[in-house]
Hints:
This protein is mainly alpha-helical. Helix content is 55%, strand content 11%. The protein contains seven helices and three strands; from the N terminus they run αααβααββαα. The protein has a three-stranded antiparallel sheet, sandwiched between helices. α2 crosses α5 and α3 (32-47) crosses α4.
Amino acid sequence: xxxxxxxxxxxxxxxxxxxxxxxxxxxxxxxxxxxSVVSAAAEDLxxxxxxxxxxxxxxxxxxxxxxxxxxxxxxxAIRGGLGRHFGVTFAFQNCHRVAAFRPSAVGGATxxxxxxxxxxxxxxxxxxxxx
Length: 131
């Protein structure tokens, strides 16, 4: 299970749409390590107005944290909700390389290089095979 959904939130979801703030709060509480990673990438981008993208490049400390990150970034709904919350688009190469791009940069050369097969291959090493 990806998220620990409070009963009240699940009931609201069953009755209709849930707003992003409630959804993102559920993600923050359910996946604290993943939250810390995407927060760090978004903060890195916000700290430098000239940066092409913000980044987080530290391997997770354990399989539990790796699982949180994979669950968050493999879900279109979660990754999209996090992106809307932080005002960025998240890109993901592997469990230690997460990037936050300004929406205006999506489609640009740096973004395309990051998400390309070449970018993925260049970000591999024997140490990252279990990643």
